[in-house]
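Batch job 17 of 40 flagged for manual review because the log was empty.
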Amino acid sequence: MKDNHKLLLAFVISAVWVGTAGIYNYINGYSTIAGINIFPLLAWTAGLYIFTKWAPHFDKKPIYVFLVWWISILFIEYVGYHLLGIQLTGGRAGILGTDLLHVPVFAQYYYMLTGPIFYYLTK
């Protein structure tokens, strides 16, 4: 798939996710357009697209792609939540008792699976 198509697809998937998940209400607030929060829309779009560039370096075994995504998403979550203060309203518990991914369980699955699935679908 061409790069511009990957970017467009990442944007569409991100817009649908952010627009329908109903979880992106931040303590410090971010701008929205048509009810879609711009910050996670851009973050998910960039993350998915960038991962398609990065993942081929780890594509010897599918588990490596998943591990790199998981480590990346957890690291980004840690930096955003703990160092930059980017926090959702609602005060949910983190994934598996950690202080990371403070979203509902359905969103935790989405977070952990979307990058690798997107990579393999657009490869």
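Reviewer: the log was empty due to a logging misconfiguration, but the result itself is present. The chain has one domain: 3-122. Unflagging and moving on to job 18.
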